[in-house]
Amino acid sequence: MALAAGLLQVDYIPLAEGAPARWDDVLGLATFDSAPVLADSGDVPVAKILTPVLGNNVYEVWRSSKPLESGRYSRVHYRRSEDVLFGCISLTEDSGLPAATEAAYREVFATVNELGYPHLARIWNYLPRINVEADGLERYRQFNSARRTASIAYRRELTGNVPAACALGSVTGSPLVVYFIASRQAATAIENPRQVSAYDYPPQYGPKPAFSRASVLGDILFISGTASIVGHETIHVGDVAAQTRESLTNIEALLAEAKRFSLDRLTFKVYVRNNADLPVIQSQLHARLGPRAHALYLQADICRLDLLVEIEAVGRAV
Question: Partners of 137 in the beta sheet?
Answer without folding.
Answer: 134
